[in-house]
Amino acid sequence: MRLGTVVVIALLCAASTPAFPQGSGGQKGKAQSSGQGQGQQGRGEGSGRGYGSTDRERDRIHVSRQQHDQMANCDRSAEAVRKQARKMASLGQGGGFNAGKARQYRDQLQEQVRAMQQEHQRLMQGLNPGRQQSLEVHLRNMNRLQERLNARLEEMNGELGKDAPDGKRVAEQAREMERASREWREQYRALKSRLDVQP
What we know:
The chain is mainly alpha-helical. About 80% of the residues lie in helices and about 5% in strands.
């Protein structure tokens, strides 16, 4: 075989040899890096959820079954005040204002407000200072609502003490008491959502 023929065959063999891409190793490295990044992200997200759960646990207030039942009684008392105030606000609608019936409703409302505040006071006396501090925001709001109720009730007493009380003014005072007692119940619901009853 001639030398020229051998050279041509060698060149043809070299040209037909498949070239393997050098980037495959780099792509493998990228895949490993991506997997590690996703794993770290997953661990970070799991860690974040753990912290959130821990925060919620710290927000829980441990109370006895008796204290939980006292809070339910407070809620019922507030609902009784709301219903009575609503009933009183309806006086005079579709007809003349009956001052005698308004005074009767006022007496019932006044007694229910007193009962509600007594239930609340008993509940507070059963909570130690640490628990009261944990509920500080709710208790401050409830004190403010209690002041609103007492102020409207005092105004109502003043109006109904007149010989000819203004029915519209009495109705507005009753509606304000209804709103305040509804907000009071909302505070109780928010407070109850944080309770953890101990066996």
